[in-house]
Amino acid sequence: MSSSDTDWAQVGREIEEFLNGVGTLPVSSSASVDEVRRAIESRFDFGEPIPLPVLTSQVIDLLRRYATHVTHPRYFGLFNPSVSPAAIVADTLVALYNPQLAAWSHSPAANEIERLTLRYFARAIGFDPDASSANFTTGGLEANLSAVVIALSSRFPSYRQGGVAAIGSKPVVYVSSETHHSLTKVCRVVGLGDDALREVPTTAGFAMDPAALRKLIEADSKMGRHPFLLVGTAGTTGGGIVDPLSELADIAAKFDLWFHVDAAWGGAALLVPRLRPFLHGIERADSVTWDAHKWLSVPMGAGMFFCRHAGASRVAFDVATSYMPAASGEDTADPYRTTLQWSRRAIGLKLFMSLAERGGVGLREQVDHQARMGDLLRKKLASAGWILVNETPLPLVCTTHDDIRAGRCRVEDIVSPVQARGRVWISDVVLGGREKAVRTCITSFRTQEEDLDILVSELEHARGDRRQPRQ
To answer: Is there a domain that residue 308 lies in?
Structure first.
């Protein structure tokens, strides 16, 4: 057996052992910054070569010991999922073949695999795949950036040539306090700045308030500003809230705003018949962000961007140069001419293989399982005396307790010790700028009822400890 055979066998064993055993590991590490740096710097000075089997073992040890294991069934944190074996195989093959997707002619198979996959999810949104465009992105920020650039190009024809300075008015983007803050970065990148963002008040349930939105648009127009983009959210990061998309679509149509829906996490609900109605109105969006590396359970990063208007992306991003291969034909599109990226890896293969391995039914059942675990978690927390703060059909549960509201303990007094014990991982959040809560999100398709019981037990343990009289 050659050394390379041994190396790959070692990696294969680790994949199998980690997938089967991650649930037995601590969810997170309590190691200090100094400890982690010493562990790495003491092993590697890049002075002498390290045999690959030895190096692989060392890296495996570091990643196991010093990480918050987001693929753990009791990681209830941000939208970082467990991943399927098919997706792991896909990313390995991408690393091996290293396809370049800038031009269709360089990677016909990879480009067509992505096209087929994106058409499947475009139909799930309610877009006509033949009349719309779609592409994979590095993540939600790139997809949101694509939406803003295309909206500027669409609403301000002078923007493409002269930039923001050529617009001649102050463009306005409407968001809420719960909108993902990638939009802040996006507005800075495109030259709009923070002042272009108008924060719409939220309802008691932390969704964007349509009545308040109308008033802001009318007031901005009277002040000589130029409303052009409305961003709704299908599954906010903080509380999993779905904005009233149909009402927002009506307002966007009335005021001629580009309507973008950030469904980076919540888009997966479109695959489940009982959840799909909660996202009604998303089919009227001009563009949609949807991250496969969240609820569709593939490795980071794998974002998707969909535009209902097929030619809008080409208008915004098209360039031509002699050093790129000639176009392959009218029925193909070179991604570097229709998207923000140029050189790009085959991001979509992991989603394609996950979908193909499970089938549409299997993927739907996987998403639905997590949503049902969220429903079950709400019941268990309520039975234990916890108070639900957010209302959403998605598996993100924000809670508080009478002990917290009465000042007998604080949210951070619950969250910090739970994280330190390492049996589960949760976080805290402030919703609507007014409600601080314990945030728990089902992010793993491997989470089962017994994992929820451990979570509730850990919360109660931490709450009980904080209520003990100080000595």
So the answer is: yes
Q: Where are the alpha helices (DSSP H) in 174-329?
A: 182-189, 210-222, 245-255, 312-317
Cβ atoms within 10 Å of 351's Cβ, excluding its own = 29
Q: pLDDT of 212-258, one tens digit each?
A: 999 999 999 999 999 999 999 999 999 999 999 999 999 999 999 99
Residue 78 lies in a domain: no
Beta bridge partners of 227: 172
Using an 8 Å Cβ cutoff, are 96 and 85 in contact?
no
Distance CA 151, CA 106 (A): 30
Q: Distance from CA of residue 355 to its chain's centroid?
A: 18
* Kind and range of the H or E run holding 304: strand 303-307
Cis peptide before 301 (omega within 30 of 0): yes
Integer angstrom CA distances of residue 403 from 46, 168, 184, 421: 53, 54, 36, 21
Q: Are residues 119 and 225 in the same domain?
A: yes
| Per-residue burial over 424-437, b = 16 or more CB atoms within 10 Å of its CB, e = otherwise | bbbbebebbeeebb
Q: Which of 354, 375, 406 is the last residue of a domain?
A: 354
Which residue reads 């649930």 in tokens?
23
Residue that the structure tokens 């409600």 belong to:
435
Q: Which domain holds residue 62?
A: 3-69
Residue 203 CA to residue 199 CA, distance in Å, equals 13
Q: What φ, ψ does residue 356 adopt, rounded to 5°?
A: -65, -40
Residue 36 lies in a domain: yes
CA–CA dist 192, 190 (Å, integer):
6
d(C-alpha 281, C-alpha 131), whole Å: 18
Backbone angles phi, psi at 444, to 5 degrees: -120, 130
The answer to whether 229 and 148 are in contact (CB under 8 A) is yes
Rounded to the nearest 5°, which phi and psi values hold at 337?
-95, -10
Report the run of H or E that residue 362 belongs to, with start and end: helix 349-383
Q: CB–CB of 290/180 below 8 Å?
A: no
Total tally of structural domains belonging to the chain: 3
Q: Are 224 and 167 in contact (CB under 8 A)?
A: no
Where are the extended beta strands (E) located within 125-253?
A: 133-137, 170-176, 197-200, 225-233
Q: What is the CA radius of gyration of the chain?
A: 24
What is the per-residue pLDDT across 372-423, written as a single tens digit (0 to 9) for each? 999 999 999 999 999 999 999 999 999 999 999 999 999 999 999 999 999 9
Among residues 384, 372, 443, which one has the least CA distance to residue 27?
A: 443
Report the predicted TM-score, pTM, of the whole model to 2 decimal places: 0.94
Bridge pairing between strands 427-431 and 396-401: unpaired
DSSP state at residue 183: H
Place of tokens 């949503």: 371
